[in-house]
Each structure stands twice: as structure tokens, then as C-alpha cells.
Amino acid sequence: MMITTMVDLAVDLAALEHNYRQLRRLCDPKVKMLAVVKADAYGHGLLPVARKLAAAGVNYLGVGSLEEGLMLRRAEIDLPVLLLLGILPEEAARAVGADLEVALFRQDVAQALSEAAGNQGKRARVHVKVDTGMGRLGVLPQEVLPFLAGLKKLRHLKVMGLISHLAVADQADKTYTHKQLQEFTGLLAAARDTGLQLPLSHIANSAALWELPEAHFGLVRPGLMLYGSPPSPDRPPQASLKPVMSLAARVLQVKRLPPGSSISYGCTYTTPDWCDLAVLPVGYCNGYSRLNSNRGEVLIHGRRAPIRGRVCMNLTMVEVTGIPEVKEGDRAVFLGRDRDEYLSAEELAGWAQTISYEVFCALGTANLKRYTGV
Ligand SMILES: Cc1ncc(COP(=O)(O)O)c(C=O)c1O
To answer: How far away, in angstroms, is 167 Cα from ligand 1 center?
Structure first.
């Protein structure tokens, strides 16, 4: 993590709360909400984000690893927490000890959880993960009933429900998503026919929360939209989301280069004319993609300044010719708003051939974070 006052990665927790409330309005009040805070809350910082959402009334938190779950407990956050990736058998005692709920798709883990829960005089809560078409974690549809039958013998497990994940809910064409939902509903009915209660089943990510009320079931699991990004950048949601993360830096040096000057490693850019250049202290060690070389832009004085040459480890050069009075110490915005101009995570993702999720994770984990709206 970079600790430098030249670079300012800000996380606006008031915007996070605003987004949470917007998403709440899209659901029936009876539907619970699990905030996905895995991967250090998509780079926004696990504990500050979890605390803010807990105070705002979120019902559940979803994390990736046992370690993240334990961090929440050490911070005295006592909301229900679901370990979305499940656990290893040897982690069972610690998961049960901290009352963490587990996404379950392996019999050996089920056995370990039941044993650990028995030893601790508890019942381990599990959400049986089924693979309805994501092709990632989960029990395949034809194996779900035998899997559930195997769980019935484990007295110290409490099956909360079936859960699954949608592969293309963000696309306008919902054909595949409807097939996944049909598979899920069929499995729920079949599981209930065996006498299981299944009080809390869930499948909806941000995209399904927004566009598919029939996918809400008992609980929705948004991540991206809480952090202010639309799941489908080409079809922005009705809800007014506010960006939570922004990145700015101070101009380190300004200079005027004559025509024919090369800029940065590899000499990939040569000035065709006189060029006013600003050197900025952000590079790929700050999670700012090298694919932005000669392609991305930053905002200075509310104007777009194009990146010239390659993004370096700690530095990036932008052309400020024609932007009046740019001087050393001025603020340059890499992500976020500057006067009437705005650089979204989706725009950055486009330059770097990725998705806004990766932009958040990369910038958020590489820089010291400053929180506002706490
Ligand atoms: C299992 C699971 N549920 C929900 C989500 C949240 O998805 P999104 O950020 O698109 O809302 C994720 C994120 O990857 C996930 O892995």
C-alpha cells in the first residue's frame, strides 16, 4: 500500500449509505439485503464500509475468506456474515466459533462443520451453493438432492437455503438468466418436497436486484451498485447512484517541451509541437493500469488532459497545453469529479480493457484511504 500525501484516495461513506438506501427502494421491504464486502469491500476498506452499512441497517455481510469474517467479528460487527467462497475443512472450528455462516458445496466441509458445531454446542448455518449455470462454485443441479440427503444425517447443521450466482444478469438479453432462475426455482421446489424448510435462499447480484424483481427471493446480494457503479454501463440504472471512490494527486512538475521531444520509457510518444507537460505521482504501483499509457486522461482545472507516453511505476505524464495556469501543486483527478468534468470507473475500465470492479480493487488496495462522510 502506498502511503503518500501526494496521492489522495478518498472513500465517501455518505455516498455509500446513499447508494444503499437507493437499492433498498428497489426491493420489497420484506427482502433482506446482504452487502458484498469481499475483497476488502471491492477495495473500499472492509471495516469502514461494513460499519457504515451496519449502521444504515443492512441485514447481512458477505465476505470472501474466513480471515475477512474474523476481522468483522474482531471489530465487534455482529451482523450475520456469509463466507461466500465457503471454507476449508480445517477452518470449520474457527468459522463456527465466530458464528460465521458458510456457502456449502462439499460434503467433507459439511462433515467438519457439523463436528465443530457439535463440539461447541451449536448448529452451523450453511447456505447450499448450487451451480445453475455460472460454472464456478456449487453443486451441479443433478447432484443437489443427493447432496442435501447427505446433509440430513448431520445433526449440527442448519441449512438456511439454496444459493446460486448469475453469469450474465447484466446483459440486456435475459434468456440465459431466466434459464438459471428456472433451474434455481425448480431445485428449491424439489428440495422443499423433501421436507427442508429453506428459510433464506438467494441468487440476485446488483444487476438482478435492479432489473429482475423475480430474482429477489428472500435476500439480495449487491456489491458493485453499493459502490456507485452501474452493472451495465451502456444501460445506466434508474436509481441515482453516487460514486464512492475517487483518486487525485498533486502535480509534481510542469514544463514546456519543444517539438520532437520523447516522453517516458520506450519513447512511445514524441511531441508534434510545443507541449506543456505535467508530471503526476501516480503509476502502476498505485493500481493505475499501464494500459492507460497514451490512452487515458486525467482532469486538471476541470479539463481533460491526455496521458502522454507510458505510465511508469510511480509517475504519469499528461499534456496540459491549452489548459490555463497549470502549476506545480495543482490537483489532478484520476477518478472522480473535477468541476463539470467526470471520470468514472467505467471509463477507466474501458481504457484498460477491464471492468470497474477491477479498477476499484486495484486502486483501493494499492493506496492509503481517506474516509469522508463517516
Ligand atoms: C457470490 C456473489 N454474490 C454477489 C456478488 C455481487 O455481485 P455484484 O458486485 O455484481 O453486485 C458477487 C460478486 O462477485 C458474488 O461473487
So the answer is: 10
